[in-house]
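Deliverable D5.2: sample structural annotation.
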Amino acid sequence: MAAVTSVFTLAYVAELLNQHPDRIAETSLELEPEDGFIHVHGCNDKYTPAFTAKGIENLKELLEIHESSRESY
């Protein structure tokens, strides 16, 4: 397994995938650290969600699953 050398913020990923940040945040709740979803901690106990490249791929799959589920109704 290759070492993680960079991560991408939720805001960046939302823009990359042309999705609303709230949708990315909600969908990312289904991901675990081993899926490429992590929290980057800053000052005052604040953090921002972030994704590895693998995390972005896993997130895209989840978004597609959710979209196809909505279309079947």
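Annotation notes: The first strand starts at residue 8 and ends at 9. The chain has one domain: 8-71.
The annotation will be released with the project's public dataset once the embargo ends.
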